[in-house]
């Protein structure tokens, strides 16, 4: 397994996500919308869950927040 094939990226869960933790900078702007998307994913089948790329696109489309892939990935995985 390479560093790009992390099981945490392929399959994350809200239980492993630190919802409600202190976040500063751009992370503070993405916290609520991303947490809402992750909560939506709890009831969705695995093939319909958000990818990091899809979360980035929804942040831009729905919230007018330009968040990089690495910023969103870091937030989701921690």
UniProtKB/TrEMBL annotation:
Name this polypeptide is given: Uncharacterized protein
Lineage of source species: Bacteria, Bacillati, Actinomycetota, Actinomycetes, Pseudonocardiales
């Amino acid at each position: 397994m390479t560093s790009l094939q992390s099981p945490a990226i392929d399959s994350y869960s809200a239980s492993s996500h630190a919802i409600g933790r202190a976040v500063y900078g751009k992370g503070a702007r993405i916290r609520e919308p991303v947490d809402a998307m992750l909560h939506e994913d709890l009831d969705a089948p695995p093939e319909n869950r958000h990818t990091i790329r899809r979360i980035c696109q929804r942040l831009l489309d729905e919230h007018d927040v330009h968040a990089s892939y690495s910023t969103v990935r870091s937030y989701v995985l921690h």
